[in-house]
Write the structure tokens for this entry.
Amino acid sequence: MRTALKLVSNNDHNTAIELAKHHRHLIALVGSKQDRAAFQALFEHFAPRIKAMMLKGGVNMMQAEDLMQDVMMTVWRKSSQFSPDRGTVGAWIFTIARNARIDLFRKASSRPYDDVYEMEIADDGQSSDDAMLQVEREECVSAAMKELPQDQRDVIQLAFIADMSQSEIAKKLSLPIGTVKSRMRLAYGKLKGKLEAVR
Amino acid sequence: MKLTHHLDDATLVRYAAGDLDEAFTVIVASHIAMCPQCQKASHNAEELGGQLLEAAEEVAVEQDAFAKLMGAIDNQNKANFDGVDAQNVHPFPKRRAKIAGDVPLPLQRFLGAQVADIEWKKVAPGISKHDIVLDKDVPSSLYLLNIAEGQAVPEHGHGGMEMTLILSGAYNDRFGRFGPGDIADLDEHVEHQPIVEPGGGPCICLVATEKPTKFKGIIERLLQPIIGI
């Protein structure tokens, strides 16, 4: 069964990398030329996923649609600030969706995230724009995800998509908080190991 | 800046997922603002979110969703031309100049840009405090301590999560030396006794705690309501 799974995974893996490269190209067109066709392609890919993420987080259909609109508006407005040095387009859009959700619900504010982001943009002068490194990043991220054991994947799925706190995850999975934390560390550690190996 | 104490990987994941409350989001963001290594690490953790977003099962958006969005964008562009609130709706915000001051940017809206301008309230001999009023009502608290050179903070354990970020000066405890930019990301059940290093001026640090810190000795416990840490 493992071999069969691996074969499927390899196909998915290559598609995922191609897709990530394509998204990087599209966001550059939106950022530099306000290209509406490129933006529409991004919208068609990400809007239904953002809406799904919001629904998983527990909002109703209408709120999910509104949040998706807000997120895609921000993607349009900030597209010229996207830097592939910091990560993939998917990760960047995830952070915009996360921030929109934090501002709607949380006992937190997205301001600290925005402050760090603003600082990074102010520092962007020495951006490397190394296409080779970016492709490697996309490969690593996708590969790390494929290798992630289900129990770790469940924990990060609940944290990143279902918007559950560490203690809510522990309760839902009937695990001690320490186990939730160590699965988070392991999931991140796998990715970190791969990303650091290419540098 | 050479930093030796960084964020726990589990904290990075929680920050990337958006699971920390305002007090802890501010202290983690402030460390990240001072630490290029954790800046990179936080983006790596965000890739987990990006991958899960990619893998999400799509939910159809409303049929006219894209047209609606482009309509809103055109309206904003028009408002821009008319000079209405141009700052906020500019579709491609300009880059801001370098950030000034020695207070990390995520803290500046609470404290201003300069550590020297912070006002202190004396809470014990050699220890002053500055409480930060957060925007949200959260169970955690965020404050600054200004601890004199050579001063020892009573040995204490923690009732919950606690993080300490050094802004200036340095202290030593059983985990090592903590200088500017270093963060002590401590778990519950950890006990430590920080002693401020002599010769480097007072130690000014930002502290986020989930619940009031528990001091060990009876005298310190009596002092706790007064010190309030």
In short: The mean pLDDT of chain A is 89. Chain A touches chain B through 83 residues (CB under 8 Å). Chain A has nine helices and no strands.
